[in-house]
Amino acid sequence: MEAKAYEEFRRRFFERVWVELDPFEEEIESTERLPLDRVVPILRDMQAFGLLVPEQYGGLGLSVTQYVPVLAELAKVQGAIRVLVHVHNMTAHAIADMASEEQRAALLPGIATGQLSVAFGLTEPDHGTGADVGTTAIKVNGHFSINGRKHLITNSNIASHFIVFAKTQPEAGERAVSAILVERNTPGFTIEPLPETMGCKGGEHGQLTFKDVLVPVRNVLGEEGRGLEQMETALEVSRLFIAATSLGTAERAFELSLAFAKQRVTFGKPIAARQAVQRYLAEMAVDIHALRLMIADAAAKCDAGKRIPAESSICKLFGLEAVGRVTDRALLVHGGIGYTRKHRIERLYRDARLNWLEEGTPTIQMLVIAREFLSKDNPLDH
Length: 382
Ligand SMILES: Cc1cc2nc3c(=O)[nH]c(=O)nc-3n(C[C@H](O)[C@H](O)[C@H](O)COP(=O)(O)OP(=O)(O)OC[C@H]3O[C@@H](n4cnc5c(N)ncnc54)[C@H](O)[C@@H]3O)c2cc1C
Hints:
binds flavin-adenine dinucleotide
């Protein structure tokens, strides 16, 4: 988006986050339900479903650099709202990247307005993290017959279309994974909710079961057999988005801690006057500043068309550690009352813990980072 239009969009978007979305916090945390009938129309009106959809398909076409602060702002208010917007946009971004022109034209305009809703189906209860795919899709008379299970699939309650990663030639090993589009009401495809989560309450991350589910072969996104490569590319960008989420949550926890430290008086002085508390605040500032700069570097490289496997895993890993430290310290600055729902620190602390898991655990980020440094001279210098 052109710079001046972006500034205006961003100003208005941020204003609406606080005026229209933030007030849902109490209701969502109490009921553990996201009131979709009221939240989705606001998000649609804010154009939150088309943030990363290219302009030619009716989206806003934000660059990664422009998207990062928008997602970070959403990560300051109740977590399920951020998760809903994040998964929709990261899946839309993946579709824009991996689909054929015909598929893009058919899907992206609906995705941009939120009329179509999309989910990313990778994780499985019976197989391991990431590339260890057990779901199969075998060709039968111009169709794929899909069998298997996925779980923890965000937006499973609302998605009209799921990207399902499945082995299209199980005998050919992991190379033969494909990304296949499965529509919600396809016979044999069932969706069940999973129990409520620790934080980001109100979202749904269901279990998908495929029993002889027939989908046309043309539903493969892009090229058959390229699913793992497509998944890596999608997760590479999306790990940066999780780092942006960590940044937003950390910024909010810091703002609240600064305000609390100035107003809480013990032994006749605000706690902000105590060196021990100042040290917590200083450490929070260092983490936030470092994360912000790291993300800016990776986002700029991504917008310049470069691959960023090392940068994005570094940002994701540092981000989850940084927001972990910041929310720990924020809780300490708030003292015992911070452990109650009287203060938002309690929610931010819980919401932040999802950042360990989304788009891969710390172990997986370490694996990617080590792989990049072992195979390239300087993977960050490009
Ligand atoms: C709220 C929520 C929403 C989610 N949304 C989605 C979604 O929309 N789509 C989706 O596909 N997934 C989603 N996930 C799943 C998430 O991406 C995974 O939970 C995460 O990547 C970890 O995978 P796993 O649960 O299979 O862990 P496991 O693979 O069971 O790992 C368990 C532990 O073992 C370690 N481990 C596993 N294998 C290895 C190995 N080979 N080497 C070293 N260590 C290893 C892991 O690092 C981890 O610490 C979501 C999860 C949550 C909690």
